[in-house]
């Protein structure tokens, strides 16, 4: 998976008033804290119930989850769809499994168990179908193109029929009670960065564009990780990713005063207290490690990108700002849980690539893409520095390594 190129004009961040940004952030925070959208570590929930799941099964399942997320990113990249579709689809998948875990516990206590659905934690084929269908739903709801279920069947190399995919779509939507409009960390990033005062850095949109791209990239990486996806709010992941991006920019590029004002505004709006910022710091560390793991893989990043990542950092990282948060803030945050488990599931990406390439212009795709949907990240220079994105990425990689 390679770093994203933002298709969003960074100037659009400042077309929304501060009042609107504030009200939207508060509404998003309230939504993600509801029982329907709150992150839940479903594997731990199952382990504490009467259901028996071995450690090996857990490892295998989380490996499958990570692999399916990577496959989904490959598919969206090859078909020029938004990567945000993957974040939404994995959210559907995780929430479905939370509901499925609850259903499993109820059925075990019911003598008349007529369950016809396999256990997705143990059945790889069923889990793979769930994952593909969640992506299909996300694309169908949010993308300008509509993917036909028969095309998805072809992409699966015939592993799943069109009827299986459509039946699964209905089953997932009913299980989720049609609650498919949750928030994502990427959406938080876009709003939070709108709180940066552009007058403090001479309206240099390259700086904002760099922060936007690298922060969203970290949010995308978090989708691959089970712990980050099921134990932390989207707002926490978004703020952690932005702070990671800010900390590696030099003082003469983005001053500490600007960063401090930004953090103060976010903390005021979301009512974050000291304990919340400790959680944010914990997520920052996890994101750096994930960043390093992803970008050290030759299968994930091009050689040119790897050179950028491994180049030596030219700046000194900023100090932690957890002590700057007013200890009087009083909002509870969920505690972090386990953080052990890894990666694997054999999904034929070669078959996927072939099927997607052959079907890219098929009539099974409904709609049209915008010619500007794949803009390149800015590579202009500013204040005697190289490409902002390259600077941030290389510094982050040095820190994570």
Report what the structure shows.
- With 401 residues, the protein is mainly alpha-helical.
- The protein has two domains: 10-32 and 184-341 and 376-400, no CATH class; 42-180 and 350-366, Cyclin-like (Cyclin A, domain 1, Orthogonal Bundle).
- 57% of the residues lie in helices and 1% in strands.
- It is built from 16 helices and two strands.
- It has a two-stranded antiparallel ribbon with strand order 1-2.
- Helix 8 packs across helix 11 (234-247).
- The chain is globular, with a radius of gyration of 21 Å.
- The model is unreliable at 1-8, 298-317, 326-365 and 367-388 (pLDDT under 50).
* Spatial extent as radius of gyration: 21 Å
Percent of sequence in beta strands: under 5%
Tell me the helix content. 55-70%
| Largest sheet features | 2 strands, antiparallel
Uncertain runs with pLDDT below 50, 5 residues or more?
1-8, 298-317, 326-365, 367-388
How many domains is the backbone divided into? 2
Task: For the largest sheet, list the strands in their spatial order.
Answer: 1-2
Q: Report the structural category.
A: mainly alpha
Give helix and strand order, one letter per element, not per position: HHHHHEHHHHHHHHHHEH
Distance between the termini: 18 Å
Mean pLDDT across all amino acids: 74
Shape: globular
Per DSSP, the total helix count is 16
State the total count of DSSP E strands. Answer: 2
């Amino acid at each position: 998976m390679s770093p994203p190129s933002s298709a969003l004009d960074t100037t659009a961040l400042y077309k929304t008033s501060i009042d609107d940004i504030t009200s939207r952030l508060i509404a998003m925070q309230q939504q993600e804290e509801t029982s329907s959208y709150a992150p839940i570590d479903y594997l731990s929930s199952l382990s504490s119930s009467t259901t028996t799941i071995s450690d090996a099964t857990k490892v295998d399942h989380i490996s499958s989850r990570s692999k399916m997320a990577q496959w989904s990113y490959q598919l969206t990249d090859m078909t020029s769809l938004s990567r945000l579709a993957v974040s939404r689809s994995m959210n559907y998948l995780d929430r479905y499994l939370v509901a499925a875990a609850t259903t499993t516990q109820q059925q075990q206590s019911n003598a008349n168990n007529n369950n016809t659905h396999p256990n997705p934690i143990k059945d790889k084929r069923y889990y793979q179908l769930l994952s593909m269908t969640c992506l299909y739903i996300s694309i169908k709801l949010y993308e300008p193109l509509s993917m036909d279920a028969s095309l998805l069947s072809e992409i699966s190399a015939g592993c799943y029929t069109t009827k299986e995919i459509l039946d699964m779509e209905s089953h997932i939507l009913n299980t989720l009670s049609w609650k498919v409009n949750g928030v994502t960390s990427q959406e938080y990033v876009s709003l939070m960065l709108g709180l940066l005062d552009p007058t403090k850095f001479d309206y240099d949109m390259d700086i904002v564009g760099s922060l936007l791209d690298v922060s969203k990239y970290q949010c995308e990486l978090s989708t691959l990780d089970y712990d980050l996806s099921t134990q932390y709010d989207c707002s926490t992941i978004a703020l952690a990713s932005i702070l990671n991006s800010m900390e590696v920019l030099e003082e003469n590029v983005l001053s500490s005063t600007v960063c401090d004002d930004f953090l103060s505004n976010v903390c005021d709006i979301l009512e974050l207290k000291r304990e919340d910022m400790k959680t944010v710091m914990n997520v920052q560390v996890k994101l750096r490690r994930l960043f390093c793991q992803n970008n050290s893989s030759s299968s994930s990043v091009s050689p040119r990108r790897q050179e950028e990542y491994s180049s030596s950092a030219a700046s000194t990282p900023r100090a932690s700002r957890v002590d700057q948060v007013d200890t009087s803030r009083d909002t509870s945050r969920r505690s972090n849980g386990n953080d052990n488990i890894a990666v694997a599931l054999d999904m034929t990406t070669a078959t996927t690539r072939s099927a997607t390439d052959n079907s890219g212009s098929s009539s099974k795709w409904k709609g049209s893409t915008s010619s500007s949907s794949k803009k390149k990240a800015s590579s202009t220079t500013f204040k005697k520095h190289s490409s902002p994105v390259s600077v941030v990425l290389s510094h982050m990689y040095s820190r994570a390594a």
